[in-house]
Amino acid sequence: MSIQDRYDTDSLVSSPRSPWPYVAGFIAVSAIASVLASAFLG
Fold it and tell me: Which segments cross the bilayer (predicted)?
């Protein structure tokens, strides 16, 4: 895979029109926060 292909894929995935990167990031942050909270509140 060439570098240009990687840039094309990245621009497609991180396109502002697509909500999925933000949704995935929000889910990941929520999961990490819940794990940390349960660890601290234990």
Answer: 20-41
